């Protein structure tokens, strides 16, 4: 009887390990600057970067000039048969994947640009691109995202990723008087830009994510600050001699507590390819999920 019990326990242990095997999911989030400028050299660099990482899911912002059909052609070229673009004018966001995109939504109402929601490989994903000009508009946008996220099961992984055009209070020590002075000068020169909050750097937008329980994936695996802008390419797509400038982190991947437990890697990806693809560096994240 003892031997039978022992064999039964071993069998159950084996079954549990098979049933609850872990799967690594690799995600790339990237503001690609005016749709990779529809430039063949830039597109080739982008494809090389994807080939080197082999991500399961790619979220892009600024897919200007692309359509749903041309996006599908691009995504198929790097092994993603599933693709979705939020719109075909202005500054679209997009999502491509090796796995089907389920229950997806494309939202343009009340958003400066737009956002996409989809469930992929059991993960709830939001791809966002918030207003670059107004912290008050970004507060509205984050409210809409969090309202939808609140309707999702909290025991399932939820990710909110993209270009937030917002700064995080966790990085406050890196934003000195030079950063503030540059923002003040920008507002004095441009009446439509209102990113300062009572003449101070605003941290309230990302603060709303934290209040809702979301965690910045970057500091789950890193201690040192690194900016996601600038790169070796300026905002007009021209190559610069260096990436010198005020380093800011405005590109993020935020996780609910369930997803945060699964994050094994989160980096601002800087290499010889990403230096020259966009004026932003991409965010690359790996999760280890039970399947």
Question: How would you describe the overall organization of this protein?
Answer:
With 291 residues, the protein is α+β, with helices and mostly antiparallel strands. It is built from 9 helices and 14 strands. Helix 5 packs parallel to helix 7. The longest helix has 18 residues, at 2-19. The two termini are 34 Å apart. The model has no long low-confidence stretch (mean pLDDT 95).
**Global shape:** globular
Main beta sheet: strand number and arrangement? 6 strands, mixed
Any low-confidence stretches, pLDDT <50, length ≥5?
none
Succession of helices and strands: HEHHEHEEEEEHEHEEHEHEHEE
Bin the helical content: 25-40%
Q: So how many helices?
A: 9
What structural category characterises the helix and strand content? Answer: alpha+beta
Strand order of the largest sheet: 3-4-2-1-14-13
> Could you give the distance between the termini?
34 Å
- Work out the number of β strands: 14
As a percent range, the share of strand residues is 25-35%
Overall pLDDT, averaged? 95
Quaternary: single chain
User: What is the rounded Rg?
Assistant: 20 Å
Features:
alpha+beta; 291 residues; globular; six-stranded mixed sheet
Ordered list of secondary-structure elements with their pairings:
Blueprint: H1 2-19, E1 22-31, H2 33-36, H3 40-53, E2 57-61, H4 68-77, E3 82-85, E4 93-97, E5 102-107, E6 115-120, E7 123-129, H5 135-150, E8 158-163, H6 177-189, E9 196-197, E10 200-201, H7 204-211, E11 215-216, H8 218-221, E12 251-255, H9 257-260, E13 263-268, E14 283-290
Parallel strand pairs: 1-2, 7-8
Antiparallel strand pairs: 1-14, 2-4, 3-4, 5-6, 6-7, 8-12, 9-10, 11-12, 13-14
Helix pairs in contact: 5-7
């Amino acid at each position: 009887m003892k031997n039978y019990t022992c064999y039964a326990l071993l069998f159950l242990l084996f079954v549990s390990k098979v049933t609850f095997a872990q799967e690594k999911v690799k995600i790339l989030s990237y503001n690609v600057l005016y749709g990779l400028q529809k430039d063949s050299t830039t597109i080739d660099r982008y494809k090389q970067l994807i080939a080197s990482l082999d991500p399961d899911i790619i979220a892009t912002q600024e897919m200007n000039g692309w359509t749903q059909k041309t996006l599908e052609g691009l995504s198929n070229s790097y092994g993603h048969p599933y693709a979705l673009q939020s719109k075909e004018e202005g500054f679209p966001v997009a999502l491509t994947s090796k796995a089907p995109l389920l229950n997806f939504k494309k939202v343009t109402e009340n958003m400066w640009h737009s956002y996409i929601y989809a469930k992929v490989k059991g993960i709830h994903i939001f791809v966002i691109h918030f207003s670059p000009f107004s912290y008050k508009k970004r507060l509205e946008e984050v409210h809409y995202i969090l309202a939808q996220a609140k309707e999702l099961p909290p025991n399932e992984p939820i990710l909110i990723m993209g270009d937030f055009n917002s700064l995080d209070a966790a990085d406050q020590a890196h934003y000195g008087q030079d950063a503030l002075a540059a923002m003040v000068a920008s507002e004095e020169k441009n009446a439509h830009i209102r990113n300062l909050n009572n003449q101070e750097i605003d941290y309230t937008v990302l603060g709303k994510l934290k209040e809702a329980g979301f965690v910045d994936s970057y500091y789950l695996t890193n201690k040192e600050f690194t900016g996601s802008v600038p790169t070796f390419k300026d905002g007009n797509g021209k190559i610069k001699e260096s990436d010198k400038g005020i380093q800011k982190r405005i590109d993020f991947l935020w996780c609910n507590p369930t997803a945060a437990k699964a994050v094994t890697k989160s980096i601002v990806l800087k290499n010889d390819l990403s230096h020259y693809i966009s004026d932003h560096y991409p965010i690359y994240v790996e999760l280890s999920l039970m399947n």
